[in-house]
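We emphasize that the prediction below concerns an isolated chain of 104 residues; any contacts that depend on oligomerization or on bound cofactors are therefore not represented. The input was used exactly as deposited, without trimming of termini.
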Amino acid sequence: MWALASGTVEVGESIMQTAEREVTEELGLVIRPTEVLFELELEKAGVRLHFVLLESGDMQIEEFDTGEIAEVMWMTTCDFYDKHIDEDIVHGLRYLRDKQHLVN
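Result of the prediction step, given as a token string:
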């Protein structure tokens, strides 16, 4: 199952701090969150997703959480959606594709 780096906001943490922490913990990338692009409320699941634009100087993924993640790779959004069917990706990624929020 392909997904975006994600996690729960910890007490006293902003959305931007959560994005930075989760990407670093899960992917081993040092990033700088720049903007919350939009939010998606998933009422049935009782969660709100925040989609955050990130910047990174060094895009090398050297170490990631192998307890949670089996594979990490860079690809264009078009290549990603051409390669994977809905059953392979989580709801947030399907939402992005359907709403065309991601561009190459």
